[in-house]
Amino acid sequence: MATLILVRHGRSTANTSGVLAGRTPGVALDERGAAQAAALPGRLAGVPLAAVVSSPLQRCLETLRPLLDARPGLPFHTDERISECDYGDWSGRKLAELNDEPLMEIVQTHASAAAFPGGESMRAMQARAVDAVQDWNARIEAEHGEDAVYAMCSHGDIIKSVVADALGMHLDLFQRIHVDPCSLTVIRYTRLRPFLVRLGDTGDFAALAARENGGNGGAAEVGGGAGAP
Q1: In the chain, what is the straight-line distance between the N-terminal and C-terminal CA atoms, in Å?
Q2: What's the pLDDT tens digit per position in 63-118?
Q3: DSSP 3-state helix, strand, coil percentages of the chain (rounded to 5)?
């Protein structure tokens, strides 16, 4: 089957302001996020991409724009199923205040039981994302062959839930996975099982030093910021 490159969107204005963006419209890349997006074509220069699929949210579309500009004619699609988790009433709120919500402990330690008020459950989020990946794997393989590679730009919790599925991990353990903004995660799918080839690869280890000082790499997702190392 196909090989999937999962791209987390570049750092956004919500990441830097500590806000849980969710599906709130108008959340763009910040200056660093734009620079990360500009570097993406070079990072993938040696990869013969068959197609690119994206969450329809602005920050993902902005992340892919330099890559699509560098490769005119590259097939491009959007898919609602890999859009951000619907955090419902939590969307647009500060992560610092959400940390005091009783539900946050459930999100961090028992994600399979977590459902956001006015939004969706984390189980539903994972199910739709994995369904999307499986559908695109089959489509890409049918159109381009079993050695085809394609990219999918999405969000922290979506990517982590897909990785957990590929590793055979229970959703309750997915918070142990971390993916930085504009990181690349590669999963090679085969008939019998998937293989995790890369996880959260940015080629930059400076974030490790930042975490020693209490930073979290600029992530502001329920699973990528709150409770992160």
Answers
A1: 34
A2: 999 999 999 999 999 999 999 999 999 999 999 999 999 999 999 999 999 999 99
A3: 45, 20, 40
